[in-house]
Input
Amino acid sequence: MLKKLSAVIAAALLAAACTGCSDTKGEKTKDLSAEASKGRYVEEDIQTEELWNAGEFANSDDTCFADVSFVGEGNMGRKHILGDGAFTAEDMGIVLPDGIEQMYDGVISPEGDIFTGCIDSDGNFKYLLVTKDGECRLMEQEKDQLFFSYEFSADGRLFLISGDYELMELDTSTLELKKLCTFDESPDTLDIVGDLIFCTSVEGISVYDISTNTMKEPDSALVSLWKQVITDSDKAPYDIFAGSDNDLYLVCQYGIYRHTIGGNITEQIVDGLYNSLGSADDTVRFGRADKDGSFYISFMNGEIRHYRYDPDAVNEFISTLDIYTLNSSQTLSAAVRAFTKVHPEIKIDLNIGMKDGMTYEDAVKELTAQIMSGNAPDLIMLDGLDKENLEEKGMLLDLSEIRTQWQPEDELFTNITEYNSDGGLYSVACRYAIPVVMGKKEQLGNSYTYDEMVKQSLESYSKKGGVANEEEYEPESFANEYTELLTQLYGNKMIKDGKPDEAAIKEYLESTKELISKPCLGVYCFENEYGANAAVNDATVIATGMADNAADMCYSVNALEHVTSVRDEREECDTILGLPDNPNTFRPVCELGICASGENRDAAAEFIKTMLSDEVQYEDTSEGLPVNCESLDKQLAKYDDTNMTSQVMMVDDKGMELMFTVRSTDEEERAMIKSYISGADTPVRLDAMTESAVNEAGACCLNGDISPDEAAARIRSKLELKMKE
Amino acid sequence: MKKAGSIFGYGICTALCIVIVFPVFLLAVLSLQDGTELLKAVSPLSGNGFSRPDMIPLYPSVENYTQILLFSPEYYTVFWNSAGMTAAVLISQLIIAVPAAWAFARFEFRFRKVLFDIYVLLMLLPFQVTMLSQFILLDKTHLLDTRAAIILPAAFSAFPVFLMYRSFCSIPAEMIDAARIDGAGEWRILFGIGLPLGRNGITAALVLGFLDMWNMVEQPLTFLKDKRLYPLSLYLPMLGKLSGSMIAASAGTLIPAALVFIIGQDSLESGIVSSAVKE
Amino acid sequence: MISVEKTKKLSPAVWGCNTSVLPQEKRKKRKTGDKKYIPFLLPSLAGVCLFVAVPFADSLRRSVFGTFSGRFCGADNYKAVLDNAAFRLAVKNTALFTAVCLPLLIVLSLMTALILSRLKAVRAIRSVLLFPLAVPTAAMVLIWRLLFDDHGMINGMLDDAGIGTVHFLDSKAAFAVLAASYIWKNLGYTVLLWLTGIMSISESLSEAAAVDGAGSFGTLIYIILPNLRPAAYTITIISFLNSFKVFREAYLVAGAYPHDSIYLLQHLFNNWFANMELDKIAAATVMVFAVISAAVSLLRRVWDKEAST
Output
């Protein structure tokens, strides 16, 4: 009986699984394969002005783009691209209502109606509908009602997503809003393809059918593609737009994909790796498919590019360049793009090691297996790998001879690129980060150790009598960041003579523990301008961190110069570059090495040259500062001609949010930066294993689970074990 | 005396069951809890306090399972990958290992003992030892990153040979001799006598082989690169740390294995029943 | 034509050749001078050679020739391995683990099986016994963390009871956790194997012994245990094999460099491989193989004293 019963249950379950999967079986995403020897998409820049505030492309035939802005006195202008790629701007001669100061995110319907957001003189956000006859009507909306996105459908109806996560339709004649449905979480995008509205968010894709006024299930193929796009890049911008017949396209940093609605397959049409779609500087904004099968893609920085299929473009590759990297890197991708432009006959095979489910050791084992079996990559990005071991085993090529092929020495900061040149040059660092300490003018400038910095901070803290919102402050949640920062700043001091220095480790952990035990004091790291989320207070030292891009540099060197919101007092902070007790340090990033057993050495050498070139180095990624002198100059001077400033938000000790404006650096400050960089001679570089050992035990210690003694002991025993092997 | 002994016996039995079942029970219970309730178990691990999961779900929900079954098309792919590879390997093992075990058990030839001992020894070598050479071999034959890279080495495993050997050994020689006298060929003997009578050993080999394949982690990790070929056992770590989906997926992996046991139990059972019959 | 009755009478055991059931019967083997066995054996043999024996031979070669230099270096690699402190630690731990857990498992499961064999309800719990073996590694890792983490359930209970918390995974307790995990996983299955062996011992034997005046203890020593000998051999080998499998769980929970007490040979091999120390792996492999061979032959010697196979 039992047998029969179980057999029946088993059969039933498996049958259920079968039916469940029959829909999805056969679904896949086809990557672009360069099988055909001829024909691929070619990218062209369209001559444009900067179109900062533009909205979605329009769905009509001739009017391709809507950027509505002021032209002349209170008149509205419009810019569009015609079918032959010509770009025109026209003054529509429409007089705008009084008080409107700025317009953004305008969209055009096929008939010519325009809907745009605008800001009036009081700083309120309003919405304006301009009919095709030129009539302007300001929308009456409830106070503070915002619309996250809006778009016209092919038949001229306007759909919007409100701040309350509702999908609404706006009747263009009566300006009445009708609610269609509500979403559970905030949708990031709204795209209309035919009769379907696609709303995507971190959670999933929702599809609303306009014709039947119901929600529909999204195609599973589309869902898997979207998951790939969004999980890998954490909300990377992307757009969905209509193609011919029943096709829709999705454009993102990985390329342009096509999907037939109702079908099982998504296909990659254009690979983002080899063109600007994947660029760090220019993120994709909106896309449009033209009738002739080409694409217009607009980018966040206002540029528009055209992707056209060139049937004669040669696809044949003479050779392949195998690149291996543990984690994806923006600089590396930029170099791939630049390299492909110059050498289209060399195929680049970018192999990213740390895939899902792989531990670090598994990834390294795979690399080892590849090298040992004769499939060594040509070029390796050494970040995170055990570089010393690879050198020892003779896996890396000595680059001393080759380096003459690259840029001349005075164009690069060779103290950084060639920091590793004892007994032969085995790796080249292409980016780096430098440490900064920020604090009050009076205190900075004395040279003191980390220990003393902490003591001084604690002293001023207690002089202030402690601070109010203790309950809100949870140092444990930052334990990981603190230990990471420690290893980045002092990693080189934690290993002495090849052995872990238990006393040093213990000292740093103890000091940090004391520091973070008091609310509102913090050693915190900022890696980009959005990173600062600890409290600001007028104690001695308020920040140390690693500056690794130009925005950071401006921020750190002259940050907090000028408060622009609630508090009236001016907070002035000075910065010194480098740590008092660990001077001239820098952290090398993006290190490249050539495999001794790789096949394509010449291409690899050329690639390194590309990586060091101004074109690639100028891209301001948050991986690190450029090693190319010219690029550094350009990055620091980027905002000289504009009034652009960076804004940083911090929370002060009373829980209030403060906005700090950061301006571009001045001559003196630039000189200081450059002199530090030229004099940097102490690399802080830990291999992944050591770093993770310190971070793990350190986080436990700062959390209170174990004492600093024990944390240091644990770290020591792990490192010793490794060294014994 | 017997009664006391029997109570003691039942006591042991119950204790054993509890200990064995508890982790599985925990898994099942957690998989039926929704996100907020799961936090009681999961969030302390990264911060403060202690993990105190509810032993009985206060708000039972199948959302973890629906997340896996309905919103993760990859789950089906990996599930069928595992099922396919396991089936392929088990069938191959039957075809290859059964005759080999039969040969070791019933035939006398030179080096038989030595060879069998070598089989046992080779079986005991951990994967790391042969990993590189197998990798190179598979690479040279262009089998890397295909299903064959997993199926082939496993199909030729020495383990099932070892397991089946014993039960083939125990078949009485008279029957075989009788069959030979009657003119049956060697293969006929294997199919007619060996398979039915050695059923238990074969079942055992199949069951253990199934378990090995179902939970295999090292080989796919080293030999497969394409995510579409990944088996279920690799999918679980891909889901990240300690989420509801991971727990549900783990429970989901457990179920087919348990089913196989239940089905295979009968063959194991019949061996025991037959021996309990009094003469 | 083939009599099924006969089969039942001889009660074939799953795991052993019950040659000692009826001592008078001798098993006859047909001498095949005509190589009939070859087609049976060949596929398996070829596969095993290709996928296991050849790689091992390759390791052998590599242990005496350097991987990167290609030169003959004789016993250099072996010396390097023996001198290596990590190797010594790993060997010590692995040996300790095997020496502690294997007998523990076998004895524990045997005792349990003996007790259970007297109960009628045995059949019902048989599927339950097999559950642990079905739990996938990733799930085990989950459960480990939930139970044994510094903030895990067990520490929660200890804290409530007033005893301090134990760092299970980062102290000597890790060894106990690993051992417990191994025993938990394999206990059920081993009990089942013993049970099968026990059940297959013919009732008539024990009745005969009872008639002769042997008490239940005597039956145990003189009838049951000897008849379990073949089963014991198989069980030992399988448990030994399974003891290697604890590595993956330990690796996923504690990483490549765990606490000293659970640093096993496989951790070492794993790390050596990642660091491309192929020479050392080769030499260590050969040594490990030698040790295992010695252990297995010893086992065979002890178990097959009756030279029946």
In short: Chain C has one domain: 65-303. DSSP finds 14 helices and one strand in chain C. The domain at 65-303 of chain C is CATH 1.10.3720.10 (MetI-like fold). The radius of gyration of chain C is 24 Å.
